[in-house]
Specification:
The protein is built from nine helices and 13 strands. It is an alpha+beta fold and 338 residues long. It binds zinc ion.
């Protein structure tokens, strides 16, 4: 098979800067890495191709040689290690049966790729590295958000490969479990405690549930964004909970004690005589707790005056009596038009 042009493989122009090449490489490596596409031979092949192209184009001498001589360039006397496209320690080149044996990873690069896998970059240091923070999201019922509860999140966590102890190699062989990266992604279900009063769009941090560190470094954290399923009745605005309460004409007119549903259960509340439809009332401290301040909001209920649908002569007489008690015409303040 004819080798593709290295610039084409990385999708950059011949004039691309070192930074551009690195960027292109990282983007492709992240997409094609065997850990991301387990068992996908095509990605594996492409990944190798990308790595090979990068190994040549990243280094000035090799790149210049390639620019002059094409594919013959880097391996014809310009590669100090000789043999394969890149062979640190002289281990590369030659007759491997695994596609990864002919081609050795540069562990520093892999640290880079994986360091950037889920978030901010890690250094190139070969010492202990802290694991990256990982993000996820869950949707939880309104009730659990307000009162607190538990949820679980399934995710793929990056861990140190147990087969090779994170070295990427077993003796001189590339570790078959992690393909030399020293890292593997494993499915895990994480149980998440939902603090009381969690808001829609809020974030919960679970320490130590991010990616595992390398070489004894501590694990990163897991940050879970919470979406709260809207409730059919209650609505949270800030730390207050809102709801609508229907009342009868008599209750509104004469005043009444009614049961008001709150997120904490029914609360007895008094509406004063002469209450108006759409009037709002407040039950202090019956709202949602703010997890940051520890303060609890209020329950705010809006009354809705229901008029009976059954109309009788006696009902009309009663309504006529009420009509005579308004202060004046009820639509007096309305505009006459635009
Ligand atoms: Zn391994």
């Amino acid at each position: 098979m004819k080798k593709r042009d290295y610039y084409e493989v990385l999708g950059v122009s011949k004039e691309a800067s070192e930074a551009d090449i690195k960027k292109a490489y990282r983007r492709l490596a992240r997409k094609l890495h065997p850990d991301v596409n387990p068992g996908d031979k095509n990605s594996q092949k492409k990944f190798q191709e990308v790595q090979e192209a990068y190994d040549v184009l990243r280094e000035g001498d090799k790149r210049r040689a390639y620019d002059r001589f094409g594919h013959a360039g880097p391996s014809m006397g310009f590669d100090p290690a000789g043999g394969g496209p890149r062979a640190p320690g002289g281990a590369g080149g030659g007759a491997g049966s695994s596609p990864f044996e002919t081609f050795q990873f540069d562990p520093a690069d892999l640290g880079d790729i994986f360091g950037n896998f889920f978030g901010a970059g890690a250094g190139r240091s070969r010492g202990r590295e802290q694991g990256e923070d990982v993000t996820g999201s869950i949707e939880i019922p309104f009730r659990d958000a307000v009162l607190g509860g538990f949820a679980s999140l399934s995710l793929r966590r990056e861990k140190e490969c147990s087969r090779c102890g994170g070295k990427g190699r077993i003796g001189r062989e590339t570790c078959p479990a992690c393909h030399g990266s020293g890292r593997v992604a494993e499915a895990e279900t994480v149980k998440i405690r939902i603090p009381e009063g969690t808001e829609n769009g809020g974030t919960i941090r679970i320490p130590g549930k991010g990616s595992d560190g390398s070489r004894g470094g501590s694990s990163g954290d897991l940050y879970v964004t919470v979406r709260v399923t809207p409730h059919p009745y209650f609505e949270r605005l800030g730390d207050d909970i809102h709801g609508v309460v229907p009342v009868t004409v008599k209750e509104a007119y004469a005043g009444a004690e009614i049961d008001v549903p709150t997120v904490h259960g029914l609360r007895r509340a008094r509406i004063p005589p002469g209450s108006q439809g759409r009037q709002k009332f407040r039950l202090r401290g019956q709202g949602a707790k703010n997890p940051r301040t520890g303060q609890t909001g209020d329950h705010i209920y809006t009354i809705r005056v229901l008029v009976p649908k059954t109309v009788t002569p006696a009902g009309v007489d009663a309504a006529t009596l009420l009509d005579s008690l308004y202060d004046g015409p009820v639509r007096a303040d309305l505009p006459k038009g635009l």
